[in-house]
TrEMBL record:
It is found in: Cell membrane. The keyword Signal applies. CDD domains: PBP1_Med-like. InterPro entries: BMP_lipoprotein, Peripla_BP_I, PnrA-like. This is BMP family ABC transporter substrate-binding protein. PANTHER family: ABC TRANSPORTER GUANOSINE-BINDING PROTEIN NUPN (PTHR34296:SF2), TRANSCRIPTIONAL ACTIVATOR PROTEIN MED (PTHR34296). Belongs to the BMP lipoprotein family. Residues 27-314 form the ABC transporter substrate-binding protein PnrA-like domain. Gene3D superfamilies: 3.40.50.2300. The lineage of its organism: Bacteria, Bacillati, Bacillota, Bacilli, Bacillales.
Amino acid sequence: MVYRLGVIFLILFVLGGCGSSPLTGKIEKVGLLVPDTISDQVWGTKGYKGLLRIQSVFNVDVYYKEGIDNEAAIKMAVEDFRKKGVNLIYGHGSEYEKIFNDICKDYPDIHFVLMNSKAEHDNVTSISLEGKAMGFFGGMTAAHESKSKKIGVLATQKWQPEVKGFIEGAQYVDPNIEVITEYAGQWDDAEKAVELYEKMKKAGADVVYPAGDGYNVPVIEQIKKDGLYAIGYVSDQSELGENVVLTSTIQHVDEAYELTADEFNRGALKGGRRTFDMQEGVIEMGAFSPVVDPSFQEEIKGLIEQYKNTNKLPNE
């Protein structure tokens, strides 16, 4: 059932059969908190798919709650999960950083996992999906296909490593290319993102990288109407138009969730930062558009393999 909960505190969905138990190891039951919805087909959906992978691999009961985006809701949801016997909780976003770090000492038998945040205790782990390399190869593609020699990256926050990677990758292909950068400030502010895209278009950008999971689809739809090119973000977005989306920078959050669950089950998941990149298969490039010439596609694929083996980008 994939719809927003009417009463986010009181309704809890149980996935899977009752009474199942883990095959081996520490996992008992697993919970997922989502600040928005699991049915957005991008970020929230990826978290939900990760939960389903954990359910399938470890044969455990799993639970999720949507719309958990404030302190009171988070505390109530965690307590609900505790009563259900959950001992591994995923907070699907950085929104959970302060609360998880504050309350973890009250739940020593629960391990908390969240995204792109500080993790200050032994039972709190922050998953970091490294974005620089995927941004680099996206930037290479954008620069290679640009006719105006002006491209844009429309991100949410200045700290996003994919922004720096995109700029470096574009300049690796063409040192003289102009990269226009804009920041939406909110991951889901589609209206502002489209406005910033229009600004980039007027400045001459003919390839734009909307690096925000809550607004990339509406921005790409507008790019399609304008007959320009896009680089997809988070998921393979070639289905939005294979002649529009040159390639995508993909983050397999579901794979990262399964890997951390496996580490927890083996007693190997430590508190602190846990990073994933292309080497683990959590980050990858999506399908290339047929408008990207095959020789360039092969060049990028070779550079990606080189990066996996050496952990060094082509400009390093």
